[in-house]
Hints:
93 residues; mainly alpha; two-stranded parallel sheet; 4 helices; 2 strands; 61% helix
Amino acid sequence: PVAQMRAAGKAVVASPRAIEGIGVQAGEHLLVADGNEETAAAIVTLLEAPELRSRLGASARAWAEAALRWDDRLDRYEELYRHLTRAGTGQAS
């Protein structure tokens, strides 16, 4: 869900756990908040700062276009499929 919002070019507030391992930076691609109070404060910040909201949305969109390309994902899926089918037949990787 976080990646989908980024792809839509919308500013995002996410928890630290939600962004683990996906290669985004707090303050550059989105705002990170831990808990209800921090999340509410981050949302208010975005509502009160249209320039920040716009910048984060554009940066998030650019990240998504670069990091979530279908052809890259398809290549990785096909590699995994080949590996699993070889493993299932007892062939060496």
